[in-house]
Each structure stands twice: as C-alpha cells, then as structure tokens.
From TrEMBL:
Protein name as it appears in the record: UDP-glucose 6-dehydrogenase
SMART domains reported in the protein's UniProt record: UDPG_MGDP_dh_C
Gene source species: Deefgea piscis
Keyword terms of this UniProt record: NAD, Oxidoreductase
Residue ranges annotated for the UDP-glucose/GDP-mannose dehydrogenase C-terminal domain, each copy included: 320-424
Stretches of the chain forming a coiled coil according to its record: none
Amino acid sequence: MKVTVIGSGYVGLVTATCLAEYGNDVLCLDVDVSKIELLNQGGVPIYEPGLEEMIKRNRAASRLRFTSNIAESVAHGTIQFIAVGTPPNEDGSADLQYVVAAANHIGRHMNTYKVIVNKSTVPVGTGDKVRAVIAAQLTLRGLNASFAVVANPEFLKEGAAIDDFMRPDRIVMGCEDETASDLLHALYAPFVRNHDRILLMDIRSAEMTKYAANAMLATRISLMNELANLAEILGADIELVRKGIGADPRIGYHFLYAGVGYGGSCFPKDVQALQRTANENGIQLRVLAAVEHANLAQKSVIIHKIKQRFAGNLAGMHFALWGLAFKPNTDDMRDAPSRVLIEYLLAQGATIAAYDPVAMIEAQRVMPHATGLRYGEGPQAVLKQADALVVMTEWKAFRSPDFAEMKALLSQAIIFDGRNLYEPQYLAKQGFEYYPIGREQIYPALIARALMTEPSEQALNLA
Ligand SMILES: NC(=O)c1ccc[n+]([C@@H]2O[C@H](COP(=O)([O-])OP(=O)(O)OC[C@H]3O[C@@H](n4cnc5c(N)ncnc54)[C@H](O)[C@@H]3O)[C@@H](O)[C@H]2O)c1
C-alpha cells in the first residue's frame, strides 16, 4: 500500500519504518528540512534500539523515502498518517497547531480519496476539527473529493518502540467509514496475524482511550512513589511491598517501580491535557490533579536527600551523575527528572560530571548553557573525585558495577539512587552510604555495623 507518514519524530519514524518493513511503499514527510536531509544521508535523528538498521534496510529496498515536499507527500499515500507533536500550551491544553497545519496541507493538495489517520495524541473532538479543516480547504478549491478521518492513537513505548509496533497488544481504531476501515484492517493485518487485536470503535472513544491509558499509568507511578516515601519513614521496604501487591493479578507487577517521578514526552503533558479537557467540560479530575502534584514533588525527593546529607551546603561540591534520559533505551530528554536535579545542583554552585549511554548529545542540545556540567566517556570516568554518585536512569549498564573500583574513584563512597538498582545491605557491606527510594537508607553508623558483622579474614583462616 502507498502510505504517507506526516512527522518524522519518535512515532512517525517508527510507524513509517515498520510499515515499510512489511512491504508497504512509505513516504515520510517532515517540515524540519535538516531532519529530512539527515535521514536522506543515512542518519537517524533519534535513538531507538534497532531503528537505524531497519531504516537502512528499507531505504535500500526503496520502500522507505523521506521528503519535505508537502505536495509530493499528499499525492503519495491513500493513507495519510498524522504523527506530529502535540506539545502543551501554557494552560496545559494540547497545542494542536501542528495537527491543524498537517490537515491544512492535506486539504490544499489532495485530489483523490484519502484516509487521514491521526496517530498524534489529541483531545476528544480533534477528529471533527481535522475533518472541518480539510473540508474548508476543499471548499476553497471548489473540489468535491471524499475523505475519511480516523483516530488511531499510538501506544508504543520509547526504548521498545519497534517491538511494540510490530507486536502491538492492541490497535485502537476510531473509524466510522467502511472503506477506511477495510483499508486499515488490510494495512495492519500482518501486525495482528496470530489473533485479531484491532479494537474498532468510534473516533471520540479512540481519542479518549489514549489519554485514559496514560492517566492510569501515571497514577500507578505516583501512587507507588507516595507509598515509597511512606515506607521509608515507617521502616518498610517498598521493593518487598511491590512484590507483595504485584502478586495480585488485579494489580500485576508491571509499572509498579518507585523512583524519581515520571517524565518524558507523554505522561506529563497528557495528564495535564486530560485535566484541561475535563475542566473545559465542567468536570474536575481530582485524582489526576493529585497524580500531577505528587509527581512534581517526587522529582525533588533525591534533592532533599542530597541536601539533608550535606547539611544544605552544596557550593563547591562535585557530583557524578549516571543517567540523563527520562528512561533507559532512549535519548529523549523531554521532562526528564535529571534536568530538575541538574538545574538545582548547578544553581547551588555544585559541579556535575554526567554519563548516559545515548542521551549526552541530546542533553547538550537541551541544556546548552549548563556551565558546571560536563560529560564523561563512561560510567567509571565520571566518578573521579566526586563527593557522591546520583543514579537517575536505570540503564542496564549501571546494574552490576564494580563497587570496589567505584569506591576507589569516588572521593566519598556515597550513592543516591533514584531507581533502586542496588541492595541496601549489600552496599553497606561494601562500605557505601546508600540512599535509595522507599528502602532502608544506609548511613555511616549502619555501615560500621554491617562491616562489624562481616566475618574477619583472620577468623575465616582460623576456621
Ligand atoms: N514519543 C512517544 O513515545 C509517543 C508515544 C505515543 C504517542 N505519542 C504522540 O505522538 C505524537 C508525536 O510524538 P513524537 O514524540 O513522535 O514527536 P516528535 O516531536 O518527536 O516529532 C514530531 C515531528 O513532527 C514534525 N512536524 C511538525 N509539524 C509538521 C507538519 N505540519 N508536517 C510534517 N511534519 C511536522 C516535527 O518537525 C517533528 O519532527 C504526539 O502527539 C505524542 O503525544 C508519542
């Protein structure tokens, strides 16, 4: 099938590439000319595991092409996916200017039947808006071409986007046009081969499903974070509590980790936008307001621990930072909790040496003026002479480090762990002060006790 994908960001690029992988003829449009130039030279503007090779393969087979020519892109696909950004406005509502611009472009150039499929996360009612924009352009042109609008929200997760797209747990399709529905069922058939996972519904329900899913997930995270803060005070261990509640099938183990708050390009803006929609309709989503509030507070939990440990005086101190991206396997820095920490430490007169396996270039781009922040070549390289290590992203490479080497490199053996990667008692035995989230905090007195209970070498030899 001939498919056009409008927008070559995280969602657009993955959508275009995965559709090409199954043999479709895909043209991907972006108004950002430098992005298209990079893609046409074989570069990839984002990090997503497996994406680069897949793009390469499909470009070589001429199934995937990139353009900034709008007329060409509209002429190409019967199916036109819209995958442009919907960032938040000042008031938290979704900014639809890019979606509307894409719709205007389609209306201005289309001459034959088109199916416009909205993959961007958009408020309920946007389908009607897109339809009206295109119809207005057609009227201006005196053209009576028919078209259908479909809501097909995307549920892929950055870091696992290709797998999510190739093996979706569901494809939500808000479609009220039979021809469009047949075309999309045919397009998605290879992705749902072993059993049908296409959920056909009306456009408004499809639009709302995306926000409802993100609201539910953000709620889980904020609740776990608040429970973790309480567990820490009560002397309970949130990791054990997590296992205890996750065993209940009504709760499940997924997405139950306590940490430094959610970030990224979706949850913060979608939680806000859904509240905004509710307010505009005279309803308050009280739970979501609390979820957002709790998340903002959680982003400061590590900061409070650091302040407390160093008696508030951080000027002249030097910190090592592991992890910049808002989660592992992506270079996305949008609303990353690391940014809140970096801003705070630098404002206090501290310096930072940071390492992230893939997000350092993006970090430099989004924080170009962060004097006092430098980047290292590897996890060990940034530890030298740091007063403490702070872990902000749970990359695999950070999970089993050489603690003896770390201790030798750090000027103080102190770890603030925003992702609960290590076992508190084990770190105590290694002689580390350790401050995780919602678990036992290992401070100097506890290290002394842990080291005393360790059998001495002499005693072992005697035995
Ligand atoms: N990133 C995710 O994990 C994710 C997951 C599910 C849904 N979504 C939603 O998908 C949408 C896109 O998100 P993203 O992360 O891919 O955004 P992004 O910012 O990475 O990419 C958007 C791209 O669209 C381009 N663009 C803007 N206006 C355009 C136009 N008129 N014509 C052509 N290109 C245009 C931009 O230049 C940019 O390259 C958002 O609504 C987002 O909420 C994102």
